[in-house]
Amino acid sequence: MSELTGVRCVKLPVTDLPKSVDWYRRVYGFTPTYEFPDEGGVVRGVAGDLPGCGYTGLALRENPDAGGIAGLEVMLGVRDRAALEAWVAHLDEQGAEHSPVVEASIGWLVVVHDPDGHEHHLYTDERHGIDQSGRAGYGRAVADPA
To answer: What is the CATH number of the domain that holds 46?
Structure first.
């Protein structure tokens, strides 16, 4: 098989497209670059860019049954603990509900939910060095990944 080049896009269903576009703009700096009208010309979806996510885009599609699904998460990388604390301040300014900073399996994270309940993790690239491998629900290295 040929090599994959990356994750092209994450597409999320949303119940209220304008409300979600506004939330993603305010919270993450989302910039729509494409819109998808239905046969009547009503825009039912958008796709665009998230600052700092490089090649990976975000698409939002209107769906009246949209809602978060337990276990399905979007994880966004954040440089380090200080950058994560800056995100917490930004989320507070935007009125976006979030968890406190959590010592996760290998780094720190903050959990955010969008207007439809999709769970996002802002997760640090910086590792905290805390061994969480003995805690239920936390990750541990695979002994032989092959």
So the answer is: 3.30.720.120
